[in-house]
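Kindly draft a polypeptide, keeping tokens residue-aligned:

***
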Amino acid sequence: MENNNIAVGLDIGTTKIVAMIGRKNEYGKLEILGLGKSKSLGVHRGVVNNITQTIQSIQQAVQEAESVSDYKINEVVVGIAGQHIRSLQHSDYITRANADEVIDEEDIDLLINQVYKLVMLPGEEIIHVLPQEYKVDGQAEIKEPIGMYGGRLEANFHVVVGQVSSIRNIGRCVKSSGLGLGGITLEPLASANAVLSQEEKEAGVALIDIGGGTTDLAIFKDGIIRHTAVIPFGGNVITEDIKEGCSIIEKQAELLKIKFGSAWPGENKDNEIVSIPGLRGREPKEITLKNLSKIIHARVVEIIEQAYLEIKNYGHEEQKKKLIAGIVLTGGGSQLNHLKQLVEYITGMDTRIGYPNEHLAGDSDAEMASPLYATAVGLVMNAVENQSKVVVEEEVVEPPTETISEAEFAIEDNAEHTNNSAPIQSEPKKERKSIFEKWADKLKDFLDNAE
């Protein structure tokens, strides 16, 4: 069954790969039509390290989602994370040729394209360039400069950088699975879209997404993203610790963590004991819950302290940068018992668990609203937005484009990236494009050239 207004998010995680099909209902909420998930085998700490296995896992998740929903998946929006992601602040300016004309989209494009030309370390690529606030002729704190007069346009940018090879490997896995790449989004941004409310982003909030291989962090203040980081620890290291500490196999360690695990050792009595069947003919093992939670506690404290360090680096302790809405925890790791209390204890900040139900339709499955699927829901939202933009664009652009062959259009498109003199006929199209789409287009060109 083909349908144009459906969108698909693909969350390639360390523990699981999720394909989620969704569309907007008439109330503007997200209706999830299908969900497929498979065990992720070729990903380590958010980075693909086995292409063949990852492709198999993606295909398995996609087939499951298709069979549940009867829709055919052609194109997906993918999330990117991993320990190679870093973010930096950068400010840049342009001097406008004609200060008597008002600032328009093109000036902002010029400025943003200039940031894309920054020289990065070898093997790094700029993923997102997010303008924070603008200055026009020295007048600061302007959120939207379009339509204003001024000769010098300046902006602070949040620049997210990642490893070229990792980005290309993800692109390769998606393409080899027979899917089109609709776009790539930073996973902390996707999760933030799914679980944070606009009020929280305004007041100042830190989103900590504890996944299997990585913990993603996104900080918002005044409605603008201020800081992103990926910490290379997640739920899997907790399982590893339990496995080592109790000398049991991984499967048992994972079950122990989920069923009996707690991040707060004081909660368990000394005499609570779990018995674990021994391996083939060996005696069963007895493990006290107190010891189990001590092991978990030690590692969780480390993860939270790393995240808190990032929050401090952003400047949370300054009055002006204070995160009033505190911390929101999401991802599979956020379901650990007493984690909220532990985070509040370590950071002294208000904490809640984030469920991605903020934008889901009312009749959605309870399962979909689990923190496990925060990133997937965010990616579907992103895909839906991209699509509605594309639909609007197509309506505007069609008449002038008919005369141009595909190849010519592609050449013009590249010219637009290099020279900043844009071709005339793509102007209506430009207005509708957000920074993310522009970036996605660049990345697509980049991946196609790399093939």
